[in-house]
Amino acid sequence: MPNRRRTAAGLTAAVAVAGAAVLTAAPAAQATVVDVNYACVTKIGPKEAVSPVDIKAVKSGSGYTITMSFEKGVSDSPIELGKGVMTPRAELVLGGAASGTVKVKGTPNTAAIPPDTPIKIGTLTGTFTPTKNGKVTFTAGTLIVHALGMDAAECKPKNNPAPSLELEVTGLSGGDADPPAGNDEGDDDGSGSELPRTGPLDSALALGTLGGTVLLTGAAGVLWLTRRTAR
User: Fold this and answer.
1) How far is CA 203 from CA 191, 214, 215, 217, 230, in A?
2) How far is CA 117 from CA 21, 76, 184, 211, in A?
3) What is this structure's pTM?
4) Are 51 and 119 in contact (CB under 8 A)?
5) Are 183 and 100 within 8 A, CB to CB?
6) Could you read off the pLDDT of 159-188 as tens digits, one per residue?
7) SS3 208
8) Which of 85, 132, 183, 222 has the fewest CB atoms within 10 Å around its CB?
9) Is 47 exposed, middle or buried (0-12, 13-18, 19+ CB in 10 A)?
């Protein structure tokens, strides 16, 4: 009997450990290749193309590196595009525990693109910094093909695609707070229309400066009136 009890206890502990391992190994992100039907406005007229889109996230510091890749081209050019003249960029629409968009950008083409050939988009990269815990979805948005010094094609999904990525954000301290304004990646230069206020002393100094300005203005007005009277 003691041996059986020890065996049963050992099996129970093994099952518990295995269950914990399964929970620990649960994926924090689920990516799905989604077919996106792009309708493009180009310099040579409207174009349409369907491309499978894959979006992935890799933890990097306090945020995530986001990559977006295309399996097919979505537009073409009537002329050859030389090496380095085409750069794509796109927006990913956030959902779930986040809102807004994440901007991703590709690198210039490394080889010439022949005329009337689907333009290979390649991989676009950006950064997402979460502000609260929860499941965040990433869906393909507007795609811009910049070529020959201009935005040669603007492509928008027309089939209301499903999210290509679901990312479970956990472990943020105070992560239930609303995200701060201006949280779009890459566009905020830190400047604002309101000066920073650090405490009562700064407010007093500001009021003192304002009072001095008003006082000087008043004195100038009195002096001007005195001169007018003297004349």
Assistant:
1) 20, 16, 18, 21, 41
2) 49, 5, 34, 69
3) 0.64
4) no
5) yes
6) 999 999 999 999 888 655 444 433 444 444
7) helix
8) 222
9) middle
Alpha-carbon span 53 to 68, nearest angstrom:
7
- The phi, psi pair for 27, rounded to 5°, reads -65, 140
- Which amino acid is residue 5, in one-letter code? R
Q: In the numeric block, which tokens belong to residue 94? A: 């956030």
* C-beta atoms surrounding 55 within 10 Å: 26
The pLDDT tens digits for 22-58 are: 333 345 788 899 999 999 998 888 988 899 999 999 9
Q: What is the pLDDT of residue 72?
A: 84
* Helix and strand counts by DSSP (H, E) for the chain: 2, 10
Q: Among candidates 44, 123, 41, 37, which has minimal Cα distance to 81?
A: 44
CA distance 49 to 47: 7
Tell me which residue has tokens 């890749």: 69
Distance from C-alpha of 55 to C-alpha of 53, rounded to nearest angstrom: 7
Q: Which secondary structure element, helix H or strand E, spans residue 186, and what is its range?
A: none
For 226, phi then psi, to 5°, come to: -60, -45
